[in-house]
Amino acid sequence: MYTVPHPAYMPSSPEYLFSALAVDYHEGNVTYHEQANHWIQITPDVTSSESGFSIPSIEAGTSGRVNGLAIDWLAKNVYWVDEGYNWIKMTNYTGRGEVVIAEVGIERPSGIACHPYKGYLFWTELGDRYPPKIERSTMAGNNRITIVDGLTEPRSIAVDTILDRIYWTDNIAKEIKVESSDLNGNGRRTEVSEPTSLGVFDSIAVDETYIFVGGSASEDFMRYYRKVSPNELVFEYEFGSDIDLYDLCVAGPNIQSQPVTSPCDGNTCENYCVSAANNNHECLCRDDYVLNPNGTCSIDASIYYHPPFCVIGQTDAISIFDPTILHHDWLSYYGVDAYIHNFFSGSPPYVTTALVVDIHSNLLFLADDLRKEIFVVKVKGREFRVSIHKYNTGQIEGMAVDWLTLNLYFVDYVNDSRCSLAYDGKGLTCKYDVIKPTAIAVEPFARYMFWTEETSPAKLVRSDLDFANQRDLTDIGLQKPTGMTIDLKLNRIYMVGSDSKVIYSTEYDGNNKQTIGRSKYAAIDITNYQDFLILAEPLGIFSGMVEAIHKPTGEHEGSIMLDSSITAIAIADESTQPRTSPSIQDEESDSGGLNFSVVGGAIIAIIIMLAIIFAVIYNIRSKRTNTKSEMSEQNNLYDNKAFVVDMTTTKPTKRPQSSGNTPKSKGQSTPSGDTSSAELPQSSGNTPKSKGQSTPSGDTSSAELPQSSGNTPKSKGQSTPSGDTSSAELPQSSGNTPKSKGQSTPSGDTSSAELPQSSGNTPKSKGQSTPSGDTSSAERPRSLIDKPFYRWKPPSNVLEPPVFNKGK
């Protein structure tokens, strides 16, 4: 048996911080998370006599908040919890791709452990909106249930594979504890109890004889307690003030026993083999692939760019990238261009002032201030832009979608208006009751729209999605608000402005206003993904930055530099556009831990109610039959003709079919993708007073563009002059240079495509159906490492891993 890490194995440089580790006794390797670089790395055999070794990275896309690792030594897999991204993932020892094991209902996962012989995975949830608890699933993430609740701060967990018990730490107001139970959460008892004056417990491990805990007080410490005598402290060691203990691990031949035949011996799994109960195994495919019956994996052809992905408007392109690359400030060493994918570009450039994605309908909407049009693009296949709205002299500063009713909302800074229209451009409705609106967000479950107005002082305003019940919520600490985003889980709104680096936040009613950290530069737009805010920060005409801020702490969490300015940003992921309300998801997630007696009682009650209902119906029908028989005999009012419902001629009602892995929403079917061959209506209107200068365009693919005249609108940024103007009538402009939200982005062809149909401002209804998705089988391009593009990992031919010298 040995305990790791040994100080000589790990570099002492202050930029390294190892937040979690695990050991495979038989392979002799140590797997650890390196927080500064957001890596999970695995060493070769540390027990060998080799004088030095390189340490490869098996995962480089963590949030940096990985506090627990677990090793399945039978199947050679690594599991980890990520508190920043709120998920549990796994990969194998080679690190070729990864799999999301659990994501829904995960909020602050902290500790993780496994029992490969039983096929069980355990993890602790610190909770915030969810209560603290311990959950269990199979090693493949199935059959997930809550087995322990009534906890306060369960930071870590360990499994005794000999006694088939789990041990965990819990820090409460009056004491710090180690508790244990069997693998089902029963037989719960306290193993160690100490006063809080002795510190807090952060990590735990067990072997045949001892319970090992690591914690922090005036100095970090490690303590051994004997199992057979709870509260008997056997050994304690305090580290110096310059050493922080984050995790500890124990490994040995008994607690990681190796059978003669492992469950994955001779398996046919193409991607991953995971341990299951009774020496069986299950096959898993890496993210974005589907499992075939024979264990092989096929790429999911129903998607092109799989979420999560971030979309940005730049001066030279609309680009897409995986948001996890934001955590690598040193990414420029490897070349950021390898991980930011040009979604579309062309000439003349586009001046994108706003963009938004509907991940379910597979559509990207963008407002082009050069052509004064709103375009829609089908993400899958990157089909050409289709114009769904022309706004002549206006200037659209913000857009949002209601993905439940398929409606687009936008605000026009010049015309002092807020508008909505269907995804196909029909049913335009506008209200001219706002003052210089600059950003908009939609909450489809509460049926709210929010927007900011550039008044003095600037303010946040709310109304219903049908434009009714408008009310000012609060003054915000910005003079020039430029972007906003909604966190549906926290019920909070986040806002940024071009005049400040401070991020402001408030609740839906304008109360509990807060500041959430500071960005490096003033931001022009903002979106959010999991526990992070993602900001678009233009640095001039030829450079820009995308920055990540941790919502709970306001800390800077990484950034990437761009070689062109940035004008707008949006995230595409089902976590930000769920099909059901997050509150309903919480209830469904918590339902997994219901006590059997509660479920059984409910089932019995339902059976009794059904029996009573059937008895009443039978009694009523019997009485009616008797009455009808008497009337027939006495009064001859009925003949002997039978009234029969012919089910063979009754036309059945076809239920709407869902497709893909989209979560089922109450009364809502899955929206569609295919947008081929439909004629889209063009809208036009009067030309109100404009705010700044329009920029001449280039080739518009035979599309006639509206004419603008008069005063030029003030826009939020600088537009880029165009080139060729063949086959198109271009807008004429004169006057002062506009204040534009950003730089122009290139255009492309605007040939038509069919879009999902929707009408008006239809509210969410219980029986409303929406079109279904396109599942064409075209393969998407692969990244440099033959993985879906957004799964970031340093290329092996570029990354030179550190070489550590082993000590004795």
Q: Structural class of the secondary elements?
A: mainly beta
How many beta-strand segments?
53
Question: What is the average per-residue confidence, as pLDDT, rounded to a whole number?
Answer: 75
Distance between the termini: 16 Å
Q: Radius of gyration in whole Å, from Cα?
A: 30 Å
Beta-strand residue percentage: 35-45%
Percent of residues in helices comes to: under 10%
The total of helices stands at: 2
Unreliable stretches: 1-14, 589-604, 623-808
* Main sheet record: 5 strands, antiparallel
Shape: elongated
Walk across the major sheet and give the strand order. 34-33-32-31-52
Write a concise keyword list for the protein shown above.
mainly beta, five-stranded antiparallel sheet, four-stranded antiparallel sheet, single chain, disordered N terminus
